[in-house]
C-alpha cells in the first residue's frame, strides 16, 4: 500500500486538462500576487548578480516567464482563498498560549477518496502544475544550469549572496517569531524548547556550514550534488511522460477506488492505524481488481521507488 501511495505526490504535481483559475473573481488577491512576485524579482538579481545572463533574463522578464507568473499567481490566490475560508487572520490574532490548540481532526480513507473526485482542488492544482508549474520549473533549471556551466562556484556564490540578504532579516524578526510561538503554543511548549536549542547551536550561517561538515563528509556532499542534478532531470522527464499519458486522471480514479474500498465504518474508521483491518480491506480490493493499476501509474511508482532506494544507499554511503 505504501508503494501505491507514493504516486499521489506525482498526481498532485502533474495533470492534464483545461486549467482552472483560482484568481477568477479575486482582483485583490491577483494584485497582491503580482506585487509579491515583483518584490521577489527585485531581490533575485542581488542573489544572482555573478551570472549576468540570469540577471539580464530577470530584468527582461524571461526568467520569470508566463508559466512562472501564472503558477505563482494561482498558487498565491489559492492560498489566499484558504486563508480567508478558515479565518486565519482571527486565529493568528488570538493568543491562546497553547490552551486551545490541542485539537485533532479525524481523517478517513473516505475523505481521501473525496479529495480525488473529479473537479476537486487536487485535480485543478494538478492541471495547473502540469500546464504551467512543470514548464516553469524546467525553465528555471535550464537557466541555473547555464550559469553553473560558466562558473564552477555559481551555487556557492549564490548562497553567500542570499546569506547577505537573509541574515539581517533573521536577526530582525527572531524576537517576533519567539513571541508568536509563545502566544500560540505556550512558554513551556516543545517548540520553544526546540527554538532555544537551535539558537544555542546556531548563531550564524557559518554554524550551519560547520554542522553540515560535521555530519556529512566532503565526498558525500559532492556525490549528493551530482545525484540531485541527475534526479532533477529524471523528475522532469518522468513528469512529462506522466502528464502526456493523461495519467493523473487514471491514477486518481484508481486510488479513489482503493480508498473507498479501504474505508469501513467499523473495521477502518480513520487513517490513524493502517496495519490490520485497513490493510486487509485494501488487499482484498487489490486482489479482486488484479491488473487494474494503470501502466503509467506503475511506471511512476517504479521511478519513485528507484529514487527512494538511491537515497537510502546514499545515506548509508
> Using DSSP, what is the number of strands?
0
**What structural category characterises the helix and strand content?**
mainly alpha
Low-confidence stretches: 1-18
The backbone outline, from C-alpha atoms, is globular
Q: Output the helix-strand order.
A: HHHHHHHHHHHHHH
- Please state the CA-atom Rg, rounded to the nearest Å: 23 Å
* Average residue pLDDT: 81
Task: Please report the number of helical segments.
Answer: 14
Through-space gap between termini: 28 Å
Q: What percentage of the residues does DSSP assign to strands (E)?
A: under 5%
Please estimate the helix content.
Answer: over 70%
Please give the largest β-sheet.
none
Show the helix and strand layout.
Layout: H1 2-13, H2 27-47, H3 52-60, H4 66-85, H5 88-93, H6 109-115, H7 121-150, H8 154-185, H9 190-201, H10 205-215, H11 218-244, H12 247-262, H13 277-288, H14 295-315
Helix pairs in contact: 1-12, 1-14, 2-4, 4-7, 6-12, 7-11, 11-14, 12-13
Key attributes of the depicted protein:
single chain, 0% strand, mainly alpha, 14 helices, 317 residues
Describe the structure.
- This protein is mainly α and 317 residues long.
- The chain is built from 14 helices and no strands.
- The protein has helices at 2-13, 27-47, 52-60, 66-85, 88-93, 109-115, 121-150, 154-185, 190-201, 205-215, 218-244, 247-262, 277-288, 295-315.
- Helix 2 (27-47) crosses helix 4 (66-85), helix 6 (109-115) packs antiparallel against helix 12 (247-262) and helix 12 (247-262) crosses helix 13 (277-288).
- The longest helix is centred in the middle third of the chain and has 32 residues, at 154-185.
- The chain is globular, with a radius of gyration of 23 Å.
- Mean pLDDT is 81; it is low at 1-18.
